[in-house]
User: Which sequence fits this backbone?
């Protein structure tokens, strides 16, 4: 297990969106940045609308790029000029400031002042040319999404990797409403933690939210009837369907790549085993058979095999099982606790939870179990979920004694927290691409 | 004849002296001269007989009395024993009830085996439940916050199942016990240190 030798502490900065009228639930705290970050100047976009905007588009873009760990954005106070279009950009100035890229833009409105147009352009300072530019529009409520979309375009234009700033996260919060009275919430928010919505409130536990691959549904476990049951919630209609409520465990749902099945843990036949639930036929197929715990199943990207946690060796370890021969193969041998495996989007890696000599961390290994290393060093890390572009992992951790969400790049080089102002935050699930 | 008369007289005196305490017999011998005359020849045998009878009567009376006493003592002893047994039973019931007050059982990290110090109380629950077939319990399984939520859900189930199995092995029927795991979702004590974690790794027997 390697340490973070090439990581440096860049920020301990709390960014609060000053322009947003909505009270932000999750406040971002960058804990570690990469020393190989690309310098970019995001020039404040000129506001030509004669009205206060609902979101500060350029500062949202700047914060997004910064959080990815791949970019270091230049402070506005250091800028020598504030151009708003490519023809106003003096490349020499930006080269003196050691900037590789400059993003400029302006925001205008239609005659009624209801529709907002953002014209942006991205320039490559060394090659002295405009790379991309676009005019995009929305109403006032869509300004944050516009900022995320521009962030996605800029990120992809420079890195060649699709940006995931327009995606969403689902997570669970737990808070004491009054003395001894707990309230669990299933929440949905933008990937930066803003614009949280509550999908479900319950006095009983809610856990394990997981996205369908089409991004239209969530599956999760809720104890709202007093017993655990697996539900599907359609995000478009809000419809809430109970799938399974067998005696004992109904746990850890995970969509198959074609969204036709859910892998889940049931104990109806005696103890925790993995089953495939066929959504259309409502039939279930038992996949594992062992008196030890088998749980936390996750499909390979081609749906032909699964990885899961089993304590059949006496302690939780990660196993892979080809669904054709159904012979579990143990992948982890280091340490007494390795659990909750998830494949990377390209299927080459598995991210999981590893207990080191004294704490729990997110770790990475090749799909065959080789080359294991730690990605995080925060306390009590769990529930890793990978961004759809495969670049970041969101996970649950503790920060100043409170349950918060952390995000770490898949190379472990950069990370930030999304601390909550509301209760304990846990079990994050990063959505697939939504557009 | 003189001697005979004397002997007779002596015998009468002897008899009346000896038969003090048995008035009817003394009266018979002294007040009926014919009997005295006819009995004169075997007076010695009659006295011996009377003596035997008296002794027998005395023995029987003593025996009856002893039996009475014995019976009384036995009754007293039985009553005392019953009282002691009742007291013991009451003490046992009290102890069992007190044992049943213990409804939370703790576990080691990543472990679902029942601790030795939990067995006595679990036996008391098992005895009560098997004697009261209408009673039902839910055994809740819990874990500390460490490790992953879904794994902890399964670990909590293992803990609950271990307690349920203990009850069933000791006479509780299947239909009386249900296991519900809450994993790490419902800590008994807030906090992220060993004292909180130790309190949270538990199974709780909840009477319905």
Assistant:
């Amino acid at each position: 297990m390697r340490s973070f030798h090439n990581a440096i502490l860049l920020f301990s900065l709390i960014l609060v969106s000053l322009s947003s009228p909505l009270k932000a639930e999750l406040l971002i705290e960058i804990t570690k940045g990469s020393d190989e970050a690309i310098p970019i100047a995001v020039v404040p976009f000129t506001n030509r609308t004669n009205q206060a905007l609902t979101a500060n588009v350029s500062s949202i873009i700047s914060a997004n790029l910064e959080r990815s760990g791949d970019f270091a954005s230049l402070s506005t106070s250091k800028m020598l000029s504030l151009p708003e279009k490519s023809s106003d950009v003096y490349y020499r100035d930006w080269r003196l400031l050691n900037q590789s890229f400059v993003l400029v833009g302006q925001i205008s409105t239609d005659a009624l002042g209801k529709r907002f147009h953002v014209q942006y352009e991205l320039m490559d300072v060394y090659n002295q040319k405009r790379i991309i530019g676009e005019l995009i529009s929305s109403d006032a409520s869509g300004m944050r999404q516009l900022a995320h979309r521009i962030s996605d375009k800029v990120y992809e234009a420079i890195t060649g990797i699709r940006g995931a700033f327009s995606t969403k996260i689902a997570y669970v919060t737990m808070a004491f409403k009054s003395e001894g009275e707990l309230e669990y919430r299933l929440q949905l928010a933008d990937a930066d933690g803003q614009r949280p919505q509550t999908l479900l409130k319950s006095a009983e536990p809610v856990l394990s939210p997981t996205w369908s691959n089409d991004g239209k549904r969530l599956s999760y476990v809720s104890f709202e009837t007093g017993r655990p049951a697996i539900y599907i919630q359609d995000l478009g209609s809000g419809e809430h369907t109970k799938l399974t409520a067998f005696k004992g465990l109904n746990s850890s749902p995970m969509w198959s790549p074609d969204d036709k099945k859910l892998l889940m843990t049931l104990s109806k036949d005696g103890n925790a085993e993995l089953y495939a639930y066929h959504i259309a036929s409502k039939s279930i197929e038992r996949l594992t058979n062992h008196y030890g715990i088998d749980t936390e199943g996750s499909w390979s990207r081609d749906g032909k095999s699964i990885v899961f946690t089993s304590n059949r060796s006496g302690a939780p370890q990660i196993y892979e099982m080809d669904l054709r021969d159904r012979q579990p193969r143990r992948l982890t041998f280091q340490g007494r606790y390795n659990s909750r495996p998830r494949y990377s989007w390209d299927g080459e890696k598995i991210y999981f939870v590893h207990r080191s000599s004294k704490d729990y961390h997110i770790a990475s290994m090749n799909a065959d179990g080789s080359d294991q290393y730690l990605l995080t060093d925060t306390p009590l890390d769990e529930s890793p979920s990978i961004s759809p572009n495969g670049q970041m992992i969101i996970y649950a951790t503790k920060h100043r004694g409170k349950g918060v969400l952390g995000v770490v790049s898949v190379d472990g080089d950069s990370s930030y927290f999304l601390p909550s102002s509301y209760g304990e935050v846990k079990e994050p699930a990063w959505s697939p691409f939504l557009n | 004849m003189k001697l005979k008369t004397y002997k007779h007289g002596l015998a009468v005196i002897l008899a009346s002296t000896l038969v003090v305490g048995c008035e009817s017999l003394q009266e018979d011998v002294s007040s009926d001269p014919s009997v005295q005359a006819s009995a004169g020849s075997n007076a010695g045998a009659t006295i011996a007989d009377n003596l035997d009878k008296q002794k027998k009567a005395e023995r029987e009376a003593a025996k009856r009395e002893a039996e009475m006493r014995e019976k009384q003592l036995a009754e007293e002893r039985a009553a005392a024993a019953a009282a002691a047994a009742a007291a013991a039973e009451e003490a046992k019931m009290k102890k069992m009830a007190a044992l049943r007050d213990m409804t939370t059982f703790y576990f080691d990290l990543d472990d679902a085996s029942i601790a030795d110090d939990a067995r006595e109380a679990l036996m008391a629950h098992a005895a009560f439940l098997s004697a009261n077939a209408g009673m039902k319990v839910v055994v809740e399984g819990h874990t500390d916050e460490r490790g992953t939520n879904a794994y902890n859900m399964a670990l909590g189930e293992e803990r609950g199942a271990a307690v349920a199995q203990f009850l069933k092995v000791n006479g509780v029927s299947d239909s009386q016990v249900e296991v519900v795991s809450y994993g790490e979702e419902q800590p008994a004590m807030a906090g992220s240190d060993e004292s909180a974690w130790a309190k949270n790794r538990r199974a709780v027997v909840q009477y319905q």
